[in-house]
Amino acid sequence: MCFMGFLVSNFLTDNMDSYSYLRKVSSEGHLYNGFNLITAEFKSKEDTVCYYGNKGNTEPIHLKPAGIYGLSNSLLETPWRKLQHGKHLFTSVVSRNLPSEGLVQELLQILNNEELQTPDPAQESQGEGYSKSMLQALSAVCVRSPGYGTRTNTIILIDATGNVTFTERNMLNCDITQWSTRSFHFKLAD
User: Fold this and answer.
1) Signal peptide span per the entry (predicted)?
2) pTM for the complete prediction?
3) DSSP secondary structure code for residue 149 in this structure
4) Using an 8 Å Cβ cutoff, are 83 and 72 in contact?
5) pLDDT in tens, 76-103
6) DSSP, residue by residue, 24-89
7) Are residues 85 and 141 in contact, defined by beta-carbon separation less than 8 angstroms?
8) Strand partners for 163
9) C-alpha atoms less than 13 angstroms from C-alpha of 112 in its C-beta half-sphere
């Protein structure tokens, strides 16, 4: 039995590059419930970002450095309306050239967007066995449903000189009105 909670920490502690690590994970992917994993290395001359989802391709992929990718409760770039809506909102925010704190706040608002994106036949076709009300709840960027929903948001900003702002917002006591937000600032090592 494999534990998904170790996928991230193992990447951070293994001495492997992004792609090699995801190749190793992909060879064991069948041992896990469904997951998506994005790994990255930020180096002064070349950044590397890779993706693997164990319910999709058998091999990880390198993501092109230019572009905006969307990931929801399916595979990378699954053309769900909520994913397209989220990407549109994201693009409109990042195009405004906001200072770091303002950008974080605007991105958290996007991740908290509860606007339903129904009907969505593409999403509904993957939701076999779910009730109509649950499929509707799942159609929002931020899912709110009794017993299931969005409980954590993470924003990671990295500027051109390697300064990082890592912000995480967590729901407290399973209460959608109570949240704790913490930010950390540091510089990437060369």
Assistant:
1) none
2) 0.88
3) E
4) yes
5) 999 999 999 999 999 999 999 899 999 9
6) HHHHTGGGSSS-EEEEEE--SS--EEEEEETTS-SS-EEPPSSS-----SSSTT---HHHHHHHHH
7) yes
8) 187
9) 14
> What single-letter amino acid sits at 6?
F
Inter-residue contact 103 to 130 (CB < 8 Å) = no
Minimal CA–CA distance to 142: which of 104, 121, 169, 102?
Answer: 169
At position 113, the amino acid (one-letter code) is N
Distance of CA 183 to the CA centre of its chain: 17
- Residue 150 and residue 110: Cα distance in Å, rounded? 12
Six token digits for residue 47: 């950044």
Q: Residue 37 and residue 141: Cα distance in Å, rounded? A: 19
- Please tell me the predicted confidence (pLDDT) of residue 103: 96
> 144: which strand partners?
149
Q: Is the dihedral of CA 74, 79, 80, 82 positive or negative?
A: positive
Give me the helix-helix angle, 6-13 and 18-27, nearest 10°. 140
> How many CB atoms within 10 Å of residue 124?
17
Question: Using CA atoms, how far apart are residues 2 and 76, in angstroms rounded to an integer?
Answer: 23
Q: What secondary structure letter does DSSP report for 5?
A: T
